[in-house]
Amino acid sequence: MTIDLRSDTVTRPTAAMRAAMADAEVGDDVFGEDPTVVRLQEAAAARFGREAALFCPSGIMCNQIWLRVLARPATEVVVEGDAHIVNYEGGAGALFGGVQFRTVPAADGLLTAGQVAAALRPDHFPLTPTSLVCVEQTHNRRGGTYHAVEDLAAIRAVTAAAGVPLYMDGARVFNAAVASGTDPAEYGRLVDGLMFCVSKALGAPVGSLMVGDAAAIAEAVVWRRRFGGAMRQAGVLAAAGLVALEQMVDRLADDHANARLLADAAADVHPDGIDPARVATNIVYIEDVDAAAVVGRLRESGVLAAAMDPRTLRLVTHHDVSTRDCRTAADALRRALPGTT
Q1: What would you measure as the largest C-alpha separation in the chain, in angstroms?
Q2: Does the domain spanning 15-247 belong to CATH 3.40.640.10?
């Protein structure tokens, strides 16, 4: 059996998801008539204490639509330098949104209010004015770190004073909520818009949701169609998303414990490459290794991992890998890391 720790996107729908998909009541979502999509959108909005939500095929589409709704072409978006929206979306922000990114390096990928204040540009010719600030929650490239509510509140105070919207790329925001014991509505009240994925940590096969005010979501509906994301009988997909919201959030704590198990194993043999105390959610980064070589050795033991760059290894826990699986992977990791061969 292969233990796949490359990403939490490799999960397969649960039996409950498959049953819900098979039995889903559907309609034409372009007409707003798919009752299962409507239920998912209402549930998503309620989780974050906002007026409305919109079901989209992917998180990247959500991010790009939010750039069109919240930012203006020929303006600048302030974002942490390793953020997904900058590094992993194929230049879509420039191509489709007409924006440029002002990247700010931040410890653990977490922007501070002071950094945001220093990065804002006024609307004064010939400067490129700031039209949006974006935070990532949790931060993929920095090992699943997350902004505390009080830090987000401080950033919000800066952006509100400047009249600049604040956006949350919350692909794994429920990991942050579970790890910190935060009600997702606390995040929702601090941002002008956010998105989250049901197809990552929550295990659904497809989909992400935009959450915000009713007027913003109404505009997002238009942009979703322009981007080719309008779907018809999408209830068969939304049904799995509903199961994800109802059944898969609380169990994220198991993934976090399993990630710490892997981090402890790595630190046993390669302490210079990882500090287990910094593994906050379900993503484990191990540095200062020959990543391709370690990936190859792990594969020989039936464990799949990802080389994020030549010197960095990534492991991601999810509901398709049990604690027993992770113990097996931990043993393989001890054998595969530097100094153990």
Answers
A1: 61
A2: yes
pLDDT at position 88, please?
A: 95
pLDDT interval class at 338 (50, 70, 90): confident
User: Is a pLDDT exceeding 90 seen at residue 1?
Assistant: no
Tokens of 61: 């589409």
| Closest listed residue to residue 271, CA positions, set 288, 295, 248, 292 | 288
Contacts with 144 (C-beta within 8 Å, 6 or more apart), sequence order: 138, 172, 175, 259, 279, 280, 281, 282, 283
Q: Give CA angle at 179 (21, 17), nearest 5°.
A: 10
Question: Partners of 175 in the beta sheet?
Answer: none
Q: How is 116-128 classified by DSSP, letter by letter?
A: HHHH---S-TTS-
Q: Name the CATH topology of 251-336.
A: Aspartate Aminotransferase, domain 1 (3.90.1150)
Question: Residue 317 above 90 pLDDT?
Answer: yes
Share of the chain above pLDDT 90, in %: 98
